């Protein structure tokens, strides 16, 4: 090869017709020779795409633990990002949930009728989390996020899922440590009421602010329990008995149906 | 105030390339309980920058929130980018083509600048990861925050957060850009940069800018809307607004006395505004027109003078007392 590429050599190389030895020589030469590099046709789109890819590798923001975990479970990258950034997952809320549930566990082991504390609180913990996950006043960036295409039902349900998983896991862990939890089935008495209350607040949020809807549902639950505590003819555990579970399941199914209808029409 | 009304809000819209205005509002009423924030607004908006001026509580933010699909109208018709924001599917389509910077935007403090914009880009349904990241980087460069892309939001200054909000609003080059007090906290250099960005975008997009910074309106806007009490009291070009103030702005060396809207300038002279038909202040006949001591000299009004006259600022601020 001469000191510089001839147009014929450049064309041969660019059209992938140069043999391996010539191609290697050309590549070694054009690394240091700008005029010869200019003889080769440049694919601007390819170059821009390559640089974008390189930048994305070098300059990609580090993902958080939750986002990485969710992505490794097979969730789409965007969905994992939205779930991980749920305001309701603030450390303060998680910490408060742990404190409340540990207090309920302590009461169940050390106070007479102390298990009632857990009965009262277990369905409320996820409800509070959901209430804090979406809406003006609880989401600092709501003014920005509320006018995006994902805002509304889609973001609300995504965030509800994000809050439900850790709160239900916490409640389940505590329920298994209750003195009365002889089997996983008896430890899960709170689950259906809990899910039903959350579904009820989501349905109500069509007409009320989500926080207000959650407050209404939570208050109704507490009033129902309290009235059964003071009544001479009933106990709060009747609300959680196997027969009552069928009613909870029916209510939950109806509410989920209403939510599905709303999501499809949204 | 009715004597000051210049337009209905429907006459100044430049048509979009498709011929239809980007925003069409008829008889918009928005109430918060018993308070009426918008009271029968009619408005057409097309490409270009439109400035919204008005006192606090005049209805500017409410109007922007209605356009941003954040608030529903109590009564009236609103069409944004040819779609009805009351229908869920159309509302989502509007949001795909919309950029909105709210007043005093708040963010998740634990996010980085890049992470926050990336989060907003996901919410805006922008492309795959690589294309989205490129758009985020472009946004950060546009507002001069690329070097701070890995900084947590809580470590950014107020002006930087404002620029971050602006970058979020600009993601995806929206067809309709709504900016509520966008230049609060920006230094002069950033303000110039902001003007460049907005004017560039306004070639093809509709930009609505609500602000108290009259100089931003003078520098950027082809059209000015003044709101007062939830109604549009002026709709025209900045030049037309200034024209209305001709013959009502004066300067003199001494204080004009009680009953005038006046303030002391840096050179010690007083700038005096006279409200047409108020029966107050100097009349042209009373102005000597010369430059004698204490004489009133008519001067060229600024947009700020015109705005103050239009909104009748003297009626409850008592500027002449503040200025002493």
Automatic annotation (TrEMBL), chain A:
Keywords: Membrane, Transmembrane, Transmembrane helix. The keyword Phosphoprotein does not apply. The keyword Cell division does not apply. The chain crosses the membrane at residues 89-109, 115-135, 156-178, 184-204, 211-230, 245-263. This is Zf-HC2 domain-containing protein. The lineage of its organism: Bacteria, Bacillati, Actinomycetota, Actinomycetes, Streptosporangiales.
TrEMBL record, chain B:
InterPro entries: AAA+_ATPase, ABC_transporter-like_ATP-bd, ABC_transporter-like_CS, P-loop_NTPase. It comes from the Bacteria. Residues 13-22 have a biased composition (Low complexity). This is ATP-binding cassette domain-containing protein. Keywords: ATP-binding, Nucleotide-binding, Transport. Residues 1-22, 277-297 are annotated as: Disordered. PANTHER family: ABC TRANSPORTER, ATP-BINDING PROTEIN (PTHR43335:SF2). Belongs to the ABC transporter superfamily. The keyword Lyase does not apply. One of its GO terms (molecular function) is ATP binding. Residues 23-254 form the ABC transporter domain.
